[in-house]
């Protein structure tokens, strides 16, 4: 009884960000151990520790970058373990993410801060549990459909039902969790003419990366009886609009940067699906229907920008997040046009959110530049290859120009840190180091200064 | 009489930013015409229009990037014309800059805005004229000393007094204006063992790039009788501290990124002066005592960051400016530590200045990324070479890895635009497109949103 109380107190004292960190850390350790088991690896394979660790971090952070070939290294048991890790990485963190979203998200809102701080053990915990259940339910619902459809569809491609449904199971989990791993040995390139498989994968990737508040609201809209009166939240509107705009702009850009090169001589529908799929996958998916290393260097840079922006907040994806990007863009346009206050969808954005968005973007740029620096010192690869790899890790995307396996250990460690930060989000990461209580500051007089 | 009035009214209606633009534009056209004259070019030389235009823009924006060799193309008359253009580019713009600084700088300060707007033809114009005279006086004072010292000192290097004093004259103007052109044909590499010439050049570059408000305050401090009570402005403190910190960090970084390469086997004082000079020059100078293309790729990226930050506001230099960089850094540190309000030197920074700093930085990153994109599509050079050239133009630095002359016309046009924007400053550039009066906006309710 006493032990139970002590344990509860210890857990109780943790900040949500610390809980998230511990959850992640534990998941990485357990995953590394499980994937190190001989039963997880194919006969005759003995993966080095750094590569197992890298795979574990990549799976937990649902990135999909890999220093090994999953198809050539892991056994069927290992593949199932990997799928479960991705599932935990995506949904588990989303569950905790729900809680943090509710606690931190409201906590910062001036007056609500104290209210919820004292009150959080009651109705709010109830709400969190309900929300988390909904998220898990929606995820499992799509996974079941994906598994059944893809598994059955794959019967035409694979020699037996076991193999077809294993591919269907792993492929579904890899897509919806935005894990981006493949057991085909070559991502989805095998299905480059199969628009059904591609469409299913795009849909699953979007469900995983568009953000669970969006999923819940859409579900509520569908079950709602008064559809005309239903009001979507600002978050849902901003993140969905940005998400789909980025997909459209991304597809157009990817096509334009390669229309004289890779896309030359292909049919319009091949080009449409190539461009569309690769655009969707840069949001965070990481699966690919073509060998991205064959695209032009400009396309690699363009895709790096897309990956840097990443997915929606509170989703299975990474990056600076769509809302951050949208706020920064709207802020700049408003400022240049001489306006005051940031308005989106007839709502004024809270100043604190803008400050957050700016901080996240600057910190992300700082982390990006520092990582590119270290890798360009350590590695002999070209700058654009390094930029692509770094943004892919930070955006927890998992696309690669094929250099991951050849990197030095120090670069692998940096990529692991990037995947980790990209997944838990820069703000969560920063708040772990933040002072518990801001110091009382002396108020100083204001003075103007020249800028630019 | 009527004509005079009409002319006065026409000028009167112009916004300060538009006046600056017209001044620049006229200076570019006149410079291009003057440098196109046969008398300006050496016998047998007939420079293409685009190269003369590029040289003119480079001189007016005191950048120093060049698609031609000045030493091999321009006659003595042409060299003197080039020096005069740099002089106008640096001091002329600083004079107008003074005015804009006073008008815009105060204009934005809430209540003063209307006051000065209606009142600006009287006491403030008086103040501007006085300030401008001071700036020009300080500049000419340093130039005279530089010319006499360097010219006389050069007698040991050059065959006759005319050549020595021409070199002394051009070198002084090129350094203090931060123009960065050379007529030695090889920047200051000839003086790589001469620490006197290097020290004199560093001093002149710093005078030109540290910002004229700093120069004026230092002068006032020197002539002040009550030195203990003298109070430097926040701008002076922030920009000077940042400026010298960047020089120190820059020198250290430049050394570290090449200590196994270019700097290996040299004496400590050679390395000190190499690192120090190249660090000073990235603030905006553009002269060099070594062939920067022989440094490592990491050093090129590091120097690109230094050039992107650039010089002080209201100076002969470019980039996002030291104050912008300082505010963004302090803002991030304050936010992460959970503090409110940005404090520097016991003063609170005005919120509007912070917003400006953030806007400038984001816009600069946007312009930088877009330019790198276009150049990497058009050119076959490596990404780091392109990044170096682009930041050098935007920072109006003028260092080059030697690719300027080989660029396509479209790249040259982009570099010209970058030099132009870098010199007049992003904010001035943006305000040219800003709406004259911000539209009255409907006030919308605030709503929170998830970030990162
Ligand atoms: K991924
Ligand atoms: K320069």
Automatic annotation (TrEMBL), chains A, B:
GO cellular component terms, semicolon-separated: plasma membrane
Organism annotation: Compostibacillus humi
Protein known as: Ktr system potassium uptake protein D
Keywords: Cell membrane, Ion transport, Membrane, Transmembrane, Transmembrane helix, Transport
Pfam families tied to this protein: TrkH
UniProt topology in membrane: Multi-pass membrane protein
Subcellular localization, as worded in the UniProt entry: Cell membrane
Gene Ontology biological process terms in this record: metal ion transport
Transmembrane segments: 20-37, 49-71, 77-104, 135-155, 195-218, 238-257, 316-336, 357-378, 413-435
GO molecular function: monoatomic cation transmembrane transporter activity
InterPro entries (UniProt xref): Cat_transpt
């Amino acid at each position: 009884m006493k032990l139970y109380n002590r344990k509860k107190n210890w857990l109780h004292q943790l900040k949500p960000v610390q809980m998230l960190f511990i959850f992640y850390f534990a998941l990485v350790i357990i995953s590394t151990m499980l994937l190190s088991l001989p039963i997880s690896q194919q006969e005759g394979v003995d993966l080095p520790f750094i590569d197992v660790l890298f795979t574990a971090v990549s799976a937990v952070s649902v990135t999909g970058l890999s220093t090994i070939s999953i198809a050539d290294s892991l056994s069927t048991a290992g593949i199932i373990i990997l799928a479960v890790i991705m599932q935990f990485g995506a949904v588990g963190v989303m569950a905790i993410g729900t809680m943090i979203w509710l606690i931190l998200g409201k906590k910062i809102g001036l007056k609500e801060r104290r209210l919820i701080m004292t009150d959080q053990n009651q109705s709010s915990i109830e709400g969190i549990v309900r929300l988390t259940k909904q998220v898990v339910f929606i995820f499992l619902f799509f996974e079941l459909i994906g598994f059944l459809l893809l598994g059955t569809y794959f019967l035409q491609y694979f020699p037996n039902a076991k193999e077809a449904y294993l591919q269907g199971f792993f492929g579904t989990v890899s897509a919806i969790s935005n894990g981006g791993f493949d057991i085909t040995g070559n991502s989805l390139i095998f299905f480059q003419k199969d628009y059904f498989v591609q469409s299913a994968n795009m849909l699953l990737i979007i469900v995983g990366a568009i953000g669970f508040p969006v999923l819940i609201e859409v579900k509520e809209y569908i079950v709602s009886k008064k559809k005309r009166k239903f009001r979507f939240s600002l978050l849902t509107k901003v993140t969905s609009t940005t998400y789909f705009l980025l997909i459209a702009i991304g597809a157009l850009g990817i096509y334009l940067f390669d229309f004289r090169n890779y896309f030359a001589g292909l049919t319009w529908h091949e080009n449409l699906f190539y461009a569309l799929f690769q655009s969707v996958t840069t949001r965070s998916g990481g699966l690919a229907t073509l060998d991205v290393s064959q695209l032009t260097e400009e396309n690699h840079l363009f895709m790096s920008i897309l990956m840097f922006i990443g997915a929606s907040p509170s989703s299975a994806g990474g990056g600076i997040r769509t809302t951050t990007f949208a706020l920064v863009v709207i802020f700049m346009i408003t400022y240049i046009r001489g306006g005051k206050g940031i308005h989106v969808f007839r709502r004024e954005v809270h100043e604190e959110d803008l400050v957050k968005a700016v901080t996240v973007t600057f910190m992300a740029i700082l982390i990006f530049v520092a990582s590119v620096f270290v890798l360009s010192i350590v590695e002999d690869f070209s700058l654009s290859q390094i930029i692509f790899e770094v943004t892919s890790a930070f955006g927890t995307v998992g696309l690669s120009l094929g250099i991951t396996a050849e990197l030095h250990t120090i670069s692998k460690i940096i990529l692991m840190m990037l995947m980790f930060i990209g997944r838990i989000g820069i703000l969560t990461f920063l708040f772990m180091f933040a002072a518990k209580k801001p110091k009382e500051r002396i108020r100083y007089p204001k003075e103007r200064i020249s800028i630019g």
